[in-house]
Design goal:
The chain has 113 residues and is an alpha+beta fold. The chain is 21% helix and 35% strand. The chain has a 5-stranded antiparallel β-sheet with strand order 2-1-5-4-3. The longest helix is centred in the middle third of the chain and has 13 residues.
């Protein structure tokens, strides 16, 4: 789990990996989401070994280009926003962060010009 208290109480799942795909941090929500795969024990393991070939190749491509990937999924009756994006340390590419948020049914949408 993350060493930062606010991160562990955040309701969305946060997973942080380095440039090699090693999981550096997971907050409590991410540990719960991936409980059946090992939860907190996944920290220090290689994320690429947890993904099928197609997903692994796609993620490797995004990481090589330092390009964000944003989409929604529905699983077990819950719709989620998945936001995968590069992160940087001292201006240098350091890996990827995945943020997964449950989208409430009937979520409002505003256009603000």
């Amino acid at each position: 789990m993350s060493e930062h208290p606010w991160v562990n109480s955040f309701p969305g799942a946060i997973t942080v990996i380095d440039t090699e795909g090693i999981i550096l941090e997971m907050n409590q929500a991410a540990c719960e989401v991936f409980r059946e795969d090992g939860g907190e024990k996944l920290v220090g393991t290689n994320l690429f070994k947890c993904h099928p070939e197609k997903a692994r190749v796609q993620l490797e491509g995004l990481m090589a280009k330092e390009q964000a990937n944003v989409y929604t999924i529905e699983k077990h009756g819950k719709k989620k926003l998945i936001y995968q994006t590069p992160w940087y340390k001292d201006g240098k590419y350091a890996g990827f962060i995945e943020l997964s948020l449950v989208i409430p049914k009937g979520m409002l949408h505003f256009i603000r010009d």
